[in-house]
């Protein structure tokens, strides 16, 4: 497949996902701030719709074919197109700026590296990609193949949102073509930049702060995507999930916005995290828990349940089945070893200084820790810090070679939280600037 064909395949499927997601969101009462935020929420909802559709087909015993998968998506897309015609565009047009131009350049660079196979994640070859290819060939989740003892390195218990996206891409393309699969990383970088914009708008950032934050997040995501070779893996999806959750987490409890109006966005973020990767289950719990806590009992129980329900319904069945099949293997021994805490902490510090981060990880972590001491930013910063604490605790369970485990994985896991920390830092600095400077 040529690069042009790969771009057309991913672009066409993205449009279908956005339209399908629009149909779902039209029933939730979600109120995006502008057209760009609306497209972001619709895209994430479309990803979850695809995952739900594939899960339903799998449970019903229907094969994943071009007719069943693309036919189902098309029905939802047409419904979304019809409902979209009856709605006004939210928030008016988005005024582009220099930061948006930088973000677009970062997206193009990420796309070029993916198409050239320069940023291919090794786990795409040995885990995520081979799952997607297998599911495409057999027309569904191959449980017999996953359960073979030699397939343990494939992590059979991991959720299937990303392999399912690869299957849908292959069905559109007419075959499993690696550049088209890897090109989704550029879409995730773009989505992250839009999520950063939505967060900065929600905090009332100045135009300079907004454009600077969008550029910083896009450049950070593209830099680590290429530098750490993340294309074909789900790590940028977890970064996107936390970025998506920031506006609900930053909404003051005393705001005039009706309680629970952020529930659809919090639900989208939690569901995306839970369906993307094993580590996303903890992130989903932290996001919903922090959002509920930040609203200081202003939420009805039904609203809280509604925020957790999508993640539970979309990820729960697979977690239950994987647990019953013995596929949820512990990362280490299951019991922490405090004796190696010092060595693990040293390795974590060294990994944070990884040259491919160019100091951005250190800056992000410093900002996240500092913002814990300010009530406005504490809920969002706490989610990221606790997520990293979970990773640190898991490293202590390693039976052997915990240091290598840290060195080989933690630089990549940092992308889950650092972009969100950088957005928070930009928003906080912009808010603390003198009013005369903020108007510029």
Annotation keywords:
globular, 440 residues
Structural notes for this entry:
Helices cover 70% and strands 0% of the residues. It has 440 residues and is mostly helical. α1 packs across α3 (66-84) and α2 runs antiparallel to α3 (66-84). The longest helix is centred in the N-terminal third of the chain and has 26 residues, at 35-60. It is globular, with a radius of gyration of 21 Å. The termini are far apart. The mean pLDDT is 90.
What secondary-structure arrangement, pairings included, does this model have?
Layout lengths: L2 H23 L9 H26 L5 H19 L13 H18 L6 H17 L4 H4 L14 H13 L4 H5 L1 H19 L4 H21 L7 H16 L12 H14 L3 H15 L6 H24 L16 H12 L7 H11 L7 H18 L6 H12 L4 H15 L2 H4 L2
Helix pairs in contact: 1-2, 1-3, 1-7, 2-3, 2-7, 2-9, 2-12, 4-9, 4-10, 5-7, 9-10, 9-11, 10-19, 11-12, 11-13, 11-17, 11-19, 12-13, 12-14, 13-14, 13-17, 15-18, 16-19
């Amino acid at each position: 497949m040529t690069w042009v064909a790969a771009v057309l395949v991913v672009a066409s499927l993205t449009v279908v996902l956005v339209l399908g997601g629009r149909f779902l969101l039209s029933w939730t009462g979600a109120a995006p701030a502008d057209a760009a935020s609306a497209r972001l929420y619709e895209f994430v909802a479309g990803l979850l719709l695809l995952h739900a559709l594939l899960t339903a087909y799998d449970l019903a015993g229907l094969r994943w074919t071009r007719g069943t998968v693309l036919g189902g998506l098309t029905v939802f897309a047409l419904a979304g197109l019809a409902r979209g015609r009856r709605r006004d565009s939210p928030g008016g047009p988005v005024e582009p700026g220099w930061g948006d131009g930088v973000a677009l350049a970062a997206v193009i660079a990420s796309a070029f590296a993916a198409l050239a196979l320069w940023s291919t994640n090794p786990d795409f070859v040995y885990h995520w990609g081979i799952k997607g290819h297998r599911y495409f060939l057999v027309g569904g989740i191959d449980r017999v193949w996953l359960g073979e003892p030699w397939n343990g390195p494939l992590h059979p218990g991991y959720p299937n949102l990303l392999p399912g996206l690869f299957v849908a891409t292959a069905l559109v393309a007419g075959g499993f073509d690696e550049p088209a699969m890897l090109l989704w990383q550029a879409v995730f970088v773009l989505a992250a930049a839009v999520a950063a914009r939505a967060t900065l708008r929600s905090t009332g950032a100045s135009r300079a702060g907004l454009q600077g934050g969008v550029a910083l997040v896009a450049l950070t995501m593209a830099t680590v995507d290429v530098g750490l070779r993340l294309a074909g893996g789900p790590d940028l999806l977890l970064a996107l999930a936390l970025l998506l959750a920031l506006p609900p987490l930053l909404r003051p409890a005393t705001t005039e916005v009706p309680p629970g109006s952020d529930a659809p966005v919090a639900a989208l973020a939690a569901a995306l995290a839970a369906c993307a990767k094993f580590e996303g289950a903890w992130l989903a719990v932290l996001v919903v828990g922090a959002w509920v806590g930040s609203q200081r009992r202003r939420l009805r129980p039904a609203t809280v349940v509604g925020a957790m329900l999508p993640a539970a319904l979309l990820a729960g069945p697979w977690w239950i089945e994987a647990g019953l099949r013995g596929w949820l293997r512990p990362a280490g021994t299951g019991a922490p070893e405090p004796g190696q805490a010092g060595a693990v902490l040293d390795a974590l510090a060294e990994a944070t200084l990884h040259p491919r981060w160019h100091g951005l990880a250190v800056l992000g972590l410093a900002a996240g820790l500092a913002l814990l001491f300010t009530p406005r930013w504490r809920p969002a910063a706490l989610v990221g810090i606790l997520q990293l604490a979970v990773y640190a605790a898991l490293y202590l369970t390693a039976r052997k070679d915990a240091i290598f485990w840290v060195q080989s994985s933690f630089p990549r896991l940092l992308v889950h939280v650092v972009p969100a920390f950088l957005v928070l830092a930009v928003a906080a600095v912009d808010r603390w600037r003198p009013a005369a400077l903020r108007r510029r």
